[in-house]
Write a sequence for this structure.
């Protein structure tokens, strides 16, 4: 049994219902299933052992996902914003990859050794084969369905392995099959290489809900598309919601069909959330907390929780706006101290999770689950007496900016190449817009003179813009242990106590 079951069930109940639409084009569930079988046949004939997808969100994305499942090979969407050398190195780590690339990104993979085919070409071939497809491959539910690369605490991304069993457990444990009305539509603007980009496909297809893609997010376009297409639900990351709120100003949104708005991927700034609750008074908000390693959502703060907290005068209830809610069915949580002992209610520790949807497995290095199946999220958290979980930060060095995980080492490795830089440490500090802002603390070589814009330009020329430090501060030395380990917490405290990290 594979995730193909999700599409088969949707076709069985609603073959002529629209499955996905983008920019005036759409596919019904039957059309998408036929095309997936055709492309799946092309993939089987190719001999590929996996598919790497370099492209945006659109009709092709869910089709390629289910075509890969039809062929019995894993699907790996990768970040089209990465530099060509980073993409080539990533693709080289994927076993037997066939690279399917949108024409606009083809130059980025020109140097890869893997076979490359344009998305439009494989889709055209799939249409031809759809009239007489090969039989679907018999898939072991414990085989990999999706591999997602995510930057952790080092500069080399990790390939998270999500098996068919994980994804089916996630969907069947959190979504009621066929629960959507034919008029329902989910507006999706998260990127395909994010776990939410994959989770929205399997969950909305299982509900038989129409997906409306907005490949390139823009606040005004988001509002207009939601209104035009009659979106009843939407998924955004905090930075997107912040821009939507800015676009609306003090006005309330006029999207009469919208019933639900979910967010996740990073810490939601309290002012943004409160402004959004005012702007969308009749909409149910959902905070969906999850990780790539957990096949998406493992905890929810639901609509009633949001409104109750927003309207309450009880500070304990109001505080829940900052929580991730409570675990979804089938998921267990523990909060442990540094000695792996469960902490008392209200005490901080590392959040551990367990359940059939939890993978905790990395390509090439295996599982990090403990002997009892628990996964360490590396998030610091506490739980209140009513069971609400509050994530207060990370226990590693990863910076989460605008819903994107950024490894400090990636930026440090660039800045240290600047001839005037002697040493550097990159940290994240709280930021109302991005969740976290990137701050580079730099020690210059003796006698050197530089300014922050010079160093920011240096990084911007070598990494994509989201990796450019928001602030650069200069110091004569970096705090460190006797063994040379940089004390990042001390750096953060120093920056926050100074006036150097004011908004740019």
């Amino acid at each position: 049994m594979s995730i193909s079951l999700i599409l088969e069930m949707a076709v069985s109940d609603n073959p002529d219902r629209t499955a996905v639409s983008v920019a005036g084009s759409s596919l019904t569930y039957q059309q998408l299933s036929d095309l997936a079988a055709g492309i799946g046949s092309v993939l089987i004939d190719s001999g590929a052992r996996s598919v790497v997808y370099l492209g945006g969100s659109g009709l092709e994305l869910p089709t390629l996902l289910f075509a890969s499942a039809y062929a019995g090979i894993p699907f790996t969407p990768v970040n089209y914003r990465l530099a060509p050398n980073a993409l080539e190195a990533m693709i080289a780590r994927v076993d037997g990859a066939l690279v399917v690339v949108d024409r606009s990104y083809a130059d980025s993979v020109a140097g890869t050794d893997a076979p490359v085919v344009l998305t439009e070409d494989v889709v055209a071939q799939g249409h031809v084969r759809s009239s007489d497809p090969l039989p679907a491959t018999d898939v072991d539910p414990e085989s990999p369905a999706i591999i997602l690369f995510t930057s952790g605490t080092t500069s080399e991304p990790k390939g998270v392995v999500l098996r068919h069993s994980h994804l089916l457990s996630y969907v069947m444990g959190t979504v009621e099959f066929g629960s959507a009305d034919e008029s329902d539509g989910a507006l999706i603007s998260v990127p395909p290489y994010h776990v939410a980009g994959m989770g929205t496909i399997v969950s909305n297809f299982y509900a038989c809900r129409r997906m409306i893609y907005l490949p390139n997010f823009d606040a005004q376009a988001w509002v207009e598309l939601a209104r035009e297409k009659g979106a009843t639900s939407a998924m955004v990351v905090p930075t997107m919601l912040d821009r939507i709120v800015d676009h609306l100003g003090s006005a309330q949104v006029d999207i009469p069909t919208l019933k639900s708005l979910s967010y996740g991927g990073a810490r939601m700034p309290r002012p943004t959330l409160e402004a959004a609750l005012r702007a969308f008074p009749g909409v149910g908000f959902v905070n969906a907390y999850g990780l790539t390693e957990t096949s998406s959502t493992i905890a929810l703060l639901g609509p009633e929780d949001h409104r109750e907290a927003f309207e309450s005068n009880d500070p304990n209830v109001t505080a829940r706006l900052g929580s991730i809610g409570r675990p979804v069915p089938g998921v267990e949580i523990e909060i442990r101290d540094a000695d792996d002992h469960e902490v008392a209610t209200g005490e901080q520790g590392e959040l551990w999770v367990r359940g059939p949807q939890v993978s905790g497995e990395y390509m090439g290095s295996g599982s990090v689950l403990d002997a009892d199946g628990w996964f360490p999220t590396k998030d610091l958290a506490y739980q209140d007496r009513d069971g609400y979980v509050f994530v207060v930060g990370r226990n590693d060095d990863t910076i989460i900016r605008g819903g994107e995980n950024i490894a400090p080492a990636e930026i440090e490795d660039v800045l240290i190449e600047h001839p005037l830089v002697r040493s550097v440490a990159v940290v994240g500090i709280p930021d109302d817009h991005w969740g976290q802002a990137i701050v580079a603390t730099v020690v210059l070589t003796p006698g050197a003179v530089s300014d922050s814009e010079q160093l920011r330009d240096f990084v911007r020329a070598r990494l994509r813009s989201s990796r450019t430090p928001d602030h650069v501060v200069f110091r004569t030395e970096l705090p460190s242990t006797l063994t040379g380990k940089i004390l990042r917490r001390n750096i953060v405290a120093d920056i926050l106590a100074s006036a150097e990290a004011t908004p740019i």
